[in-house]
Each structure stands twice: as C-alpha cells, then as structure tokens.
C-alpha cells in the first residue's frame, strides 16, 4: 500500500480557522474544554489533522502531544479526511464467514489505500465496521447511505464504477 494518509494535503480555509478560533475563545477557560473543542473542530474540518491540532494547542496552551493522545484514543476522532464516498465493509461474523474479508482486501487493492485512508483525489475512503444489522444480506458493505448485500469479490468493480 502506498500511504495515501500522508498524501492528502490539508485544505483548511481562513473561514474554518476563524470559526475554530471563535470556538476556542468561547470554551478554553471551561473545565474539560478539550473534548468539546475537538468535537467542534472535527465538525468544522471533517477530521483533525496535525495542523488543526496545532491551532488548538497554540490557542489553549494544551500541549500538542496531549491533544494528539486524546485524538488517537477516541474512535470518534479521525486524523485523516473522509472521502466524498465512504465505503464501509462489515467484518462482523456473519459477513466475514461469507467472504467480506476478501471484499475488503479487494477494495484496498482496487483503491490503492488501506483501511481508514482516503484516496489522494478525495473521492473514496475505506473503513471496516462491525455488524450493521443486515446479517441476512451478508456479506454487506455501504457506500455513504447505500447498502449493498449478498456480495462477491466480483461485485467490487461495478460498485466503484457507479461512484467514480
């Protein structure tokens, strides 16, 4: 895998930064302010790259390594952008025994990215998830809100083409 994670450039705007600085100013003196600031920052940017963490650190006095530790500890936060189309493959038991692991591997190969990564063009991101409650359709994947079931590895190309 090429590490697509590091090839997607940060594209923050001055408006986003102004909005973040306003949030920081409002919350920085509150006890336990880091989580709400991080949540709002992720809402603003869609993810929490090091550039955004540095803005938070510089304007709150909270050490960057502490912010990074919180961001990487909680699953709700992402260090990497999400694509226009987020593909999520269920790796729960019912899907896995019916071949979702092979589908996930094929998607990584086809998109040239690993799990949790985004294609350099920002079009697709790929995640694995646990049971989505569609076990009768196993194996299942979603593309944003669209659900695809009873899949085989051979279905991957036509699903990607639909969104490309």
UniProtKB/TrEMBL annotation:
Domain of life of the native organism: Bacteria
Gene3D superfamilies linked to this entry: Glutaredoxin, NADH-quinone oxidoreductase subunit E
Classification via InterPro entries: NADP_DH_HndA-like (IPR028431), NuoE-like (IPR002023), NuoE_dom (IPR042128), NuoE_N (IPR041921), Thioredoxin-like_sf (IPR036249)
GO molecular function terms attached to this record: 2 iron, 2 sulfur cluster binding; metal ion binding; oxidoreductase activity
Cofactor comment text: Binds 1 [2Fe-2S] cluster.
Keyword Metal-binding: yes
Keywords associated with the record: 2Fe-2S, Iron, Iron-sulfur, Metal-binding
Record: residues binding [2Fe-2S] cluster: 90, 95, 131, 135
Cofactor: [2Fe-2S] cluster
Similarity annotation: Belongs to the complex I 24 kDa subunit family.
Protein name per UniProt: NADH dehydrogenase
């Amino acid at each position: 895998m090429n590490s697509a994670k590091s090839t997607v450039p940060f594209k923050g705007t001055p408006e986003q930064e102004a909005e973040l600085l306003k949030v920081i100013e409002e919350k920085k003196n509150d006890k336990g302010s880091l989580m709400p600031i991080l949540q709002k920052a992720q809402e603003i940017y869609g993810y929490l790259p090091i550039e955004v963490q540095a803005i938070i650190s510089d304007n709150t006095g909270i050490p960057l390594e502490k912010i990074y530790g919180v961001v990487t500890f909680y699953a709700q936060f992402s260090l990497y952008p999400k694509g226009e189309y987020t593909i999520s493959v269920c790796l729960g038991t019912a899907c896995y025994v019916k071949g979702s692991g092979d589908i996930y591997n094929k998607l990584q190969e086809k998109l040239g990215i690993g799990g949790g990564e985004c294609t350099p063009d920002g079009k697709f991101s790929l995640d694995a998830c646990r049971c989505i409650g569609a076990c009768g359709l196993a194996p299942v994947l979603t593309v944003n809100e669209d659900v695809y079931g009873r899949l085989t590895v051979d279905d991957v190309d036509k699903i990607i083409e639909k969104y490309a």
